[in-house]
Amino acid sequence: MDSVLDELVRYSPSGGRRPRVMLVAPKYDYGDKKRGLSVEENYFRHTLINSGYDLVSFDSLYGARRFGAKVMNKMLLESVYREKPDIVFFILFRNEIRKDTLLEIRDELGVTTLNWFCDDHWRFDSFSKDYAPCFSRVITTDIRAVEKYRAIGVSNVILSQWACNHFLYRKFDIPYKYDVSFVGQPHGDRVKVISSLKRAGIRVDTFGYGWPGGRVSTYEMNRIFCQSRINLNLSNASVGTANQIKGRDFEIPGCGGFMITGENPAISDYFVPGKEIVTYKNIPELLERIQYYLAHETEREAIREMGHKRSLREHTYQMRLARIFAECERGR
Fold this sequence. Notes:
Elements: H1 2-8, E1 9-11, E2 17-24, H2 39-50, E3 53-58, H3 60-67, H4 69-83, E4 87-90, H5 99-108, E5 112-117, H6 120-131, E6 137-140, H7 143-151, E7 157-159, E8 178-183, H8 190-199, E9 204-207, H9 218-227, E10 228-233, H10 248-254, E11 259-262, E12 278-280, H11 283-295, H12 297-314, H13 317-330
Parallel strand pairs: 2-3, 2-4, 4-5, 5-6, 6-7, 8-9, 8-10, 10-11, 11-12
Antiparallel strand pairs: 1-3
Helix pairs in contact: 3-4, 6-7, 10-12
């Protein structure tokens, strides 16, 4: 058993900050080492470490694939029992964690449990609503999901949002290399959007898993954000075409990049469109705004700078997590 735990559990140097957290999330993107580190690793684990929390990490997705779900669930229970965290912070991928395991951690071991539900915009009915009752608290980034949770009897909902890990993503003062760039996967209608822009004469450089150029490292992506006159955030969900707020909405400004993102009514709760970021409704409007801001450097640079300041002032994961943990403490 100890040898199995050695493969699934990682310890981080503690800064002594409470609460003691066990993060249960994939280390690699979709659990695939070839795809590089996951957003869970870059967003949450890296922030928790650099914020000084006492942290233990458990890779449930790797564990399920390496040893089978049954063994991995047993190892998770053993790890919680041994490590005695104040909070077990889950970011479920699919159904790798059994519901009875979640209930045992919460009700029998007496540990506060959280899950960050990443895709309530499109996965509430098919996933979130079935797992939400198993946690002490649930976190959503979709304001419309709050009432959906309450309608099924889950009132312990924390409305949060994606952010920028300012410990990892930062501004580089380097020359521009790209007119327009996009970093992300080619799902939804993204290929159509990029193709339309190229047919209109816009030079767009694309990066990420599924594009010919392939995936880039975090450092390379950071530099791309800074080297691009315009960064596109094609914010449609991976299923369907509905726009949702994404991590990129905060990472690009957090790196000091100028961003044009898909219009979403909720984005104005975090940035002022036209002053800190730029939004678009459809492809013709996107093309028009790209052409305008490529030609108007002074306006573009002013928006870029204002977006950078707002992101660092209000939208970091350190701030988001501190608020979440404070709410958990108040609810004990």
